[in-house]
Amino acid sequence: DSPSYCKFSNNIIHDMGTLSWHQDGDRHGIGMQGGHDNLIENNEIYNCMDGLVVYVYSTANLKNYTVRYNYIHRFISTPNYGISFNTNTVGNPTDTTGNKIYHNIVDGATYGICYKYKDPSKVYNNVVRNCSERNYSFTGVNNNEYGPNVDFKNNISLNPRRFHVYFECSNANVGHGDYLLVSNFNLFYPISGRQFLFHDSVVAMGDISFA
User: What whole-number distance in Å separates Cα of residue 192 and Cα of residue 177?
Assistant: First the structure.
């Protein structure tokens, strides 16, 4: 339940979940369950429900993942995730340090790049476009969970239908200061309406500015 030292490189992965015998909820191009020191690079994933989905539970860790140079597009159903480190967590994982997501392209997902864990992570030099809900989603919303801690730099966000960036921590036991987002040198286009949202258990949802 904790794959470690895995490498998925230079693959073309497609049509996961399009056949009648594989119509359940786990129709991911790549799905992993916690672990550490895993490398996912130079893959093209298309015609799947999701691109890369990483789960973890409170007895495991999720650290030192590197996700880079992947092209993820053409999803077969909604909702879906391009690159997701934010699904089905129960409680706090033991360690979520050292995770990096960079130089990826995600096109046309419901949620483009998602991350939720409390230890510092790096999300940089990605291009996400045309997502129906959120191009970038940083949320911590599960049992006793802290908010996300993300170094978010040099990314491009294009043409979201709703949000360029959605940042959330909604656990009632979590107060101010339990989340951190450092946003610098990102490009968001176009800008119209309320496309940057912050939400926590104490402060009502509202606008937030990004450099």
Answer: 29
Instruction: Say which DSSP state 20 is in.
Output: T
Residue with tokens 């092209």: 71
CA distance 158 to 164: 8
Tokens in use for 104? 């990826």
CA atoms lying within 13 Å on the CB side of residue 22: 12
User: pTM to 2 decimals?
Assistant: 0.90
Q: Which residues pair with 160 in a beta bridge?
A: none
pLDDT tens digits in sequence order for the chain, 211 residues long: 589 999 999 999 999 888 877 766 678 999 998 899 999 999 999 999 999 999 887 778 899 999 999 999 999 988 999 999 976 656 667 888 999 999 999 999 999 999 988 888 999 999 999 999 999 999 875 555 667 889 999 999 999 999 999 988 765 544 445 678 899 999 999 998 889 987 765 554 444 444 4
Task: Tell me whether residue 85 is exposed, middle or buried, using C-beta atoms within 10 angstroms of its C-beta: 0 to 12, 13 to 18, 19 or more.
Answer: buried
**What residues form DSSP beta bridges with 44?**
12, 71
> Mind giving me the DSSP string for 40-109?
EES-EEEEESEEEEEE--TTS-EE--EEES-EEEEESSSS-EEEEEEES--S--S---S-EEES-EEES-
How many Å apart are CA 160 and CA 191, to the nearest integer? 10
Give the Cβ contact number of residue 189 at 10 Å: 12
- Read off the DSSP letter of residue 143: T
